[in-house]
């Protein structure tokens, strides 16, 4: 019998997660032989595509759900600080690659766009003010500005001000150093880089259809989507970076750690505007609070997007119910993911989240006029003819076992790894692409612990001069490294008008 091909690492999926891990591994050990396997005919074809996600460089600068308010009125800023420092770690990696000359122009994937939070009503204003006062004390948010003054807001978000009731009580915060990130362009730059280094291959139109234990590693069955032919590749380590489809592959691996996980897919839609007259008047990402009963991923925001050198506006997302795990997936994805081990948690989540399911179904059923009504909360004078509906990417939220409730729905991401470190899968979608590098560093520490502490430690320290915990506590170091990243990523101080001129 012919011997299988053999590599050190197989990465399933050519989205931002696999592309980042593959490049990082090659930086740490250039001798590693690796293969990225992608079912579609190009990279970043699912959630990492710029129009399938919002492109917000999540850094806790504007997302109100990262600073939850408890029943006693207290506000917890821990999550905002954590995500901010994780984003700084991502920026360190991108800056390192730019300085090395390994990536193209940073402007092709990251652009400065101010991040604003906007609230209405006495309760909303009181929350935002308190949140601002807390965040401002932390060095990561020292540059945040707050206003209840409508003439100031007219400068910050001119599109959003005309047509509002004169007595409306509103407030906003602004951080100028927010970003819009084209994660698709970044993914493709990383994949192109892999194409140039020895012993790294990116193979398109190839779908992973099976995984089998093979000694201390794995045999991966890869089907050519066009010819239907399959081949097996042996690998010491497998990363399941298949986005929404990571769950079924994790189940196929049969590792004990996969038991009990289920997926709750949520679809999304946006309103998009390319009318230059309107686009010109809004140069910000403005996040507000989700409607009562709405899940965190449907927090509304009106965003400047910079994709392929053109600016557009995006509003949404409008979440919806679906049974597909990928935008290009199948309606049988959800039913086929039911197993003996996860049926309990899945039923418990269905029982406890009826309101969420009803909300998602009602969102899908909305008319264009109803969608415009939501937009007019932000942009009162919005006209239907300037906006068109776009389908966003899929999110598969994690369902996991819970000793008390039987099963719970989780809105974050979770790295599930085999105990021997030979396989890892990334489940969930939030805060997503912005924190990819931190997630992959976590993977490296869990699956390659000896190398991370030994042979790779020096290189890791060179690429990442400070990690999340240090950045959260050392103000001077944070400012120094952040300024160095600003320079490498060309995040020069500009006014919004200059940026888009
Ligand atoms: C509506 C929405 C808005 C978002 N907004 C933001 C945001 O503003 N900021 C942010 O940071 N993040 C955001 N995210 C999250 C972010 O987009 C994702 O976390 C990120 O893109 C996931 O990358 P990935 O590489 O894991 O998956 P993907 O980009 O989905 O890539 C997975 C790849 O695996 C391939 N694949 C699947 N199965 C197989 C198989 N069997 N064999 C071979 N290939 C396979 C797929 O074709 C796909 O190309 C958003 C997500 C959504 C859906």
Which regions contain 5 or more consecutive residues with pLDDT less than 50?
none
Major β-sheet profile: 10 strands, mixed
Q: Please report the number of helical segments.
A: 17
Question: Which structural class is indicated by helix and strand composition?
Answer: alpha+beta
Shape: globular
Question: What's the alpha carbon Rg, rounded to whole Å?
Answer: 23 Å
> Whole-number average pLDDT?
93
Oligomer: single chain
Percent helix, as a range, is: 25-40%
State the separation between the terminal residues, measured CA to CA: 64 Å
> Which band does the percent of strand residues land in?
25-35%
Distinct compounds present? flavin-adenine dinucleotide
- Care to count the β-strands? 20
Q: How would you describe this protein?
A:
With 501 residues, this protein is α+β, with helices and mostly antiparallel strands. It has a domain at 260-412. Helix content is 34%, strand content 25%. It has helices spanning 16-28, 78-99, 121-136, 150-156, 183-196, 246-253, 276-279, 333-336, 340-352, 354-364, 368-378, 436-447, 449-453, 457-463, 468-473, 475-488, 496-499; strands spanning 5-12, 34-37, 110-112, 115-120, 145-147, 170-175, 179-181, 200-203, 206-214, 217-224, 230-240, 262-273, 285-287, 301-307, 310-321, 388-391, 395-402, 406-410, 413-417, 423-428. The strands form three sheets. Strands 4, 5, 6, 12, 13, 14, 15, 16, 17 and 18 form a ten-stranded mixed β-sheet that branches. It is globular, with a radius of gyration of 23 Å. The termini are far apart. Flavin-adenine dinucleotide binds at residues 12-18, 37-40, 45-48, 52-56, 58, 183, 207-208, 241-243, 245, 249, 268, 317, 326, 392-395, 426, 429, 431-434.
């Amino acid at each position: 019998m012919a011997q299988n091909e053999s590599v050190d690492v197989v990465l399933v999926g050519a989205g931002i997660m696999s592309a980042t891990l593959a490049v990082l591994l090659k930086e740490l050990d250039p001798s590693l032989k690796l293969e990225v396997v992608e079912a579609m005919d190009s990279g970043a074809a699912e959630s990492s595509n710029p129009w399938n996600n919002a492109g917000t460089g999540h850094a806790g600068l504007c997302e109100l759900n990262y600073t939850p308010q408890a029943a006693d009125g207290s506000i917890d800023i821990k999550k905002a600080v954590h995500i901010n420092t994780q984003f700084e770690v991502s920026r360190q990696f991108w800056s390192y690659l730019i300085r090395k000359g390994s990536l193209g122009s940073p402007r092709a994937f990251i652009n400065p766009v101010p991040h604003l939070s906007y609230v209405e009503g006495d309760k909303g204003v009181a929350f935002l003010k308190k949140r601002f006062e807390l965040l401002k004390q932390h060095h990561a948010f020292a540059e945040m500005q707050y206003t209840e003054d409508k003439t100031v807001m007219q400068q910050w978000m001119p599109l959003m001000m005309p047509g509002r009731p004169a007595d409306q009580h509103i407030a906003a915060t602004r951080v100028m150093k927010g970003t819009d990130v084209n994660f698709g362009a970044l993914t493709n730059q990383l994949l192109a880089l892999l194409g140039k280094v020895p012993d790294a291959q990116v193979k398109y139109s190839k779908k992973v259809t099976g995984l089998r234990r093979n000694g201390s590693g794995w045999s991966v069955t890869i089907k050519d989507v066009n010819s239907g032919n399959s081949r097996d590749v042996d690998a010491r380590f497998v990363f399941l970076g298949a986005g929404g489809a990571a769950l079924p592959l994790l189940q196929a691996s049969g590792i004990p750690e996969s038991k009990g996980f289920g997926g709750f897919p949520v679809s999304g839609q946006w309103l998009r505007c390319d009318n230059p007259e309107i686009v010109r008047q809004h140069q910000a990402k403005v996040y507000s609070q989700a409607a009562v009963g709405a899940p965190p991923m449907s927090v509304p925001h009106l965003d400047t997007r910079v994709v392929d050198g053109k600016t557009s506006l995006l509003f949404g997302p409008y979440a919806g119910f679906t049974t597909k795990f990928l935008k290009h997936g199948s309606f049988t994805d959800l039913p086929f993911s039911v197993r003996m081990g996860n049926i309990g948690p899945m039923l418990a989540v269905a029982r406890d989240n009826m309101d969420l399911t009803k909300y998602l179904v009602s969102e899908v059923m909305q008319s264009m006029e109803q969608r415009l009504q939501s937009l007019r909360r932000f942009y009162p004078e919005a006209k239907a003819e300037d906006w068109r509906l776009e389908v966003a990417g899929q999110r598969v939220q994690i369902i996991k076992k819970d000793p008390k409730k039987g099963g719970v729905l989780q809105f974050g991401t979770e790295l599930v790894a085999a105990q021997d470190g030979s396989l890892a899968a990334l489940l969930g979608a939030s805060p997503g692409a912005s924190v990819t590098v931190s997630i992959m560093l976590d993977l490296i520490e869990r699956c390659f612990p000896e190398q991370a502490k030994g042979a790779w430690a020096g290189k890791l320290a060179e690429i990442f001069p400070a990690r999340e915990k240090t950045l959260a506590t050392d103000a001077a170091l944070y400012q120094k490294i952040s300024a160095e990243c600003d320079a490498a990523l060309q995040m020069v101080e500009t006014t919004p008008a200059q940026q888009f001129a």
